[in-house]
Amino acid sequence: MPGKFIGNPSLLVTISQYMIQAGEAVMSARAMDEPTMKRLWEFAWSMDQKEYGPISCKQKAENPSEWAGFLLHTMLYLLYLLFMLCLLHYDEALQITWADVTFQVQDLLIKNHWLDAIPKLFTSQVSYQPMQFRVRLELPFQKRHQYGGIAPFYIYTDPDRPWMCLLQAFAIWWLLDHEKHEDLNGLMCYTQTLDSFLECFQNNLLNISVDPQPYGIHSFHRAGWSFWKICDWGGWAENFDNPGTIFKYLLSWNDNPAEARKHYMNPNRPGCNPCYSCGRTCHCG
Fold first, then answer.
1. Of 1, 142, 184, 275, which residue is 20 to 30 A from 169 by alpha carbon distance?
2. Element containing residue 233 per DSSP (H, E)
3. In the prediction, which pLDDT does 23 show?
């Protein structure tokens, strides 16, 4: 009925995204953190592994938590991890095809060498452990590199934190997608509009009793990194009125060269210089 509405319009996906960006001061969406990701992962795996198909408005009203099935939840979680761990934009992730994803296995004969995981490698008597696999992801498009030169992402297993294991998410989605499509030659994820994705994301947060209003598509890009604590400890810009200067303090071209990109997520990457305090050579610091 024209001129009449029911509910709170500020909770609409479009308006809530506008409100995050509007106002006198630009506000970032609330950062997604690991405990919330774990709860989303646990909810997805607590579902019956079946697809619901089209759901009527009446069914949604009677069972709000059943707005999607296990297949859609699994695809969404893969996208969440891609946004969070690879810092991808929404449209970048949706353009990934299965041809851009290569499962690789560690060469048992040559150290630090990886082979594409083709079927004939697994017909022998050799058995591989999860830690011996990785994914090489080559983006077909990236906003920051519109003229090519996009470096690949190397993704390794994280057995201690399965809710943050992007390799596992790739493997599970590959198996599920392969059940529905014998030849995986097209897009990796089903095409969604940004509005439909945000609606799914907000429904997903409601499933675990988290208020979705402060969250947006950029929530994953911050990955829970607390620059606030760094700036508070250093006494820099209490009002954060000059973020460009703060960033220059945090990153300098004179810093030591970074390690090889392929080792960023490698749990077995070469160690760094020993810590003067504890003597460890891990990259935790």
1. 142
2. helix 227-234
3. 44
